[in-house]
From TrEMBL:
It comes from Halorubrum aquaticum. It comes from the Archaea. Belongs to the archaeal flagellin family. This is Flagellin. One of its GO terms (biological process) is archaeal or bacterial-type flagellum-dependent cell motility. GO terms for cellular component: archaeal-type flagellum. Its main location: other. The keyword Transferase does not apply.
Amino acid sequence: MFETILDEEERGQVGIGTLIVFIAMVLVAAIAAGVLINTAGFLQTQAEATGQESTSQVSDRLQVVSQSGSFNDAEGVIESVDFVVAQSPGSDNIDLSETSVEILGGDGQETFTLSSDFNDDGSQINIFTGSPGDVVLTDTSDRAEVTLNLDDSSGEISHIVGNDGYLVEEGDSLTVTFTTPSGATTTTELRVPSTVVRDSVRL
């Protein structure tokens, strides 16, 4: 019933040496598994962070509800432009004081950050909802008016875009890009009619 092994070389090896080799193999496998688990956890965390940042760059955008400008009939230039902005659907809170603006037109390029009060770049924020001084859009129903002063030809505006103002005349166009703190951008184009007959013009 049982086979008798007569050859000593065919016997199984039993002893402390075999045990040591077995334990070593288990330890190597455990260390390798630990490294793989740590690497997988790091990659998962990094992937989640990248996904959240990518989502924010797409969804945390401003939506331009309306835009208009104030025309100086005597000088024939646009003195300031006003934007009514809101959160895009699905957007998180947007801090307008950390939102940057880039304007590009015939008078060159200007880039600056918005401010709740008129600053050296000539920007001002006025949120219609929320407490005074609040410059954070927290709900899709919130609306904020962003004013960019372009010209100082009247002598009444102390803060303007750039050192010498930004020249926008009849027939000109201006591209304005808002970039939120998360990096999401919204671009809108303003076109001044060839003939302006009112102090305030819709752009």
